User: Fold Cysteine-rich receptor-like protein kinase 29 from Quercus lobata.
Amino acid sequence: MIMCNSRLPLLFFYAILLVPHVSHSLVLQRDPYVLHNCSTSGNVSSNGTFRANLNTLISTFSSNTQIDYGFYNFSAGEGTDKVYATGLCRADLTPTDCRICLNNSGHELLQVCPNEKEGIMCDDLVSKLTEFNEVLSTLFYDLRVGASAGGIFRKVAVGNATYLNHTIYGLMQCSPDLSEMDCSNCLVEAQSYNKICCNGSLGVRALAPTCNLRIESNQFYGSTLVESLPSLSPPPVPSKSLYPPPVSAKGKKSNTSKNTIIIIVAVVVFVVLIICLCLCLRVKKQRKKVENVLTCYACEAADEISNTESLQFNFPTIRVATDNFADANKVGTGGFGAVYKGRLSDGQEIAVKRLSMGSGQGVLEFKNEILLMAKLHHRNLVKLQGFCLEGNERLLIYEFVSNGSLDQVIFDPTKRADLDWPMHYKIIVGIARGLLYLHEDSRLRIIHRDLKASNILLDDEMNPKIADFGLARLVLLDQTHSSTNRIVGTYGYMAPEYAYYGHFSVKSDVFSFGVLVLEMICGQKNGYFRNNKNEDDLLSYAWKNWRNMTTSNIIDPTLGVGSKPEIIRCIHIGLLCVQENVADRPTMSSIILMLDGNSITLSVPSQPAFLTHNNLEPDISSDQSILASINEASITTLYPR
Assistant:
């Protein structure tokens, strides 16, 4: 439930023009800050006497400097062509600002109601709305941090901020049973409604089942709450009396108590500063230790793959191979940096992933990809040739895959037309076999966690190769699932149990595989799916058409009709992969059997995940503070594991 009070009085004024004084029907049209309406009582000519009188009357407002109380009431002309106009400004505006507003409102009214005989214009002055929003955003942030960090008995924070001559008071509160992250996520989502419905409003209330926020222009919370909580706002400056009060014996005792309190506070602040300094030094030392350990891990990985082949490349070798990372050799750019094509001295072509200085991929993710890829070998996994770590440079060197990534083909109308269904099917099966190797056939059990079209590379024979293992997780062979507080990946490919609760398993990759299959058949991205008939997401639209036996609606016309039964079977398999219930999704070994022949009877899928949540925007991570991205690049942040 959302309730919005009136806009900040200081940010706007209004001028009302009525022409003439006759009753009329009111039809309002509203943009973010302007209200106007044009009557239907009669029309006038743009070059007639009535219009000339109106122009004269409107100019009278801005030229009249005698009136300084903000109310204008004039008329011009005679008889039926006589025009009346009234203007009213907020009482706190200067006469100059009032005349500017009336002048602007008058000319705007002539433009929006050029031939009408009556009109009204309400104009808001919002030139300082951005500054107000900045003040409000800072208050929101302070309150959210304070409330989220609350104890197990209550999570609440109050505070205020000053904008010009007005004080804005705020309160945020969560259920005590929420974790710090869940409380922050709930308040972020509640705050997002303010931006949607109440931008610039002075009063806002957002009530959710587990959290709430309130912003008002007056102090609506009690003083007892202020005294019991840490202050988020600077204390008011006490007024100074012209004559100091006489000091009594009681006053001396009070001064002694105050001095004692000041000393205690100073000691506490000093201790806190010392603790903070120690923590900063410890964190810096740990980061240095992580960077030093990285080289040891990489060397261990190099020893494991072969005694004759080294993973370690020196930076000058890669710089020469890529012609000093020339733009002409750049073949792609992701969220972590650019990818360059290179050629070693022996003629071998390589792809070099150069992590940018400000990349979200940290040392741990860099190490993670080296260790995993050095131990994995499969025709449907991209092969890691080595790495380079010198100074600030972090490079991953892969085999060069000539046909780029899958998203560059299936989402491009021209390239998609050259990719027939047998080639689509070959790619689907290849991706499935690569995932089966990760989940069951390798000596490790790997959960990719970021399977999507841009992370599937195609070689010169259009064989798919799964790439980008920076977010992958290693689990025990007999481990069915795991969980994390740090959700990473790409929204739109995430399984619901992972996106909402951080629970992941091999079935999380199965969900992403199902999304990928449906994208390939439809030719549209899940996160950017557009359908003229309704507002369904891709998964819901595919399931409804499969259920209604109208699957032709979701099949890309370029795939042809000759292989329609096989295409429909792949749609069926894709829908089984994106089931809401984890147990209802098949394993990759079952999917391989389903794809290899028609002898296996497929179960009937129920409605897919997110069918009831299709009011969520796919490219904003639901404002849940999920470390996720849209379908262009993965984003992650360095955390200790």
Observations:
- The two ends are 39 Å apart (CA to CA).
- Residues 10-123 form a domain with the Killer Toxin P4; Chain A fold (CATH 3.30.430.20).
- The chain has 16 helices and 23 strands.
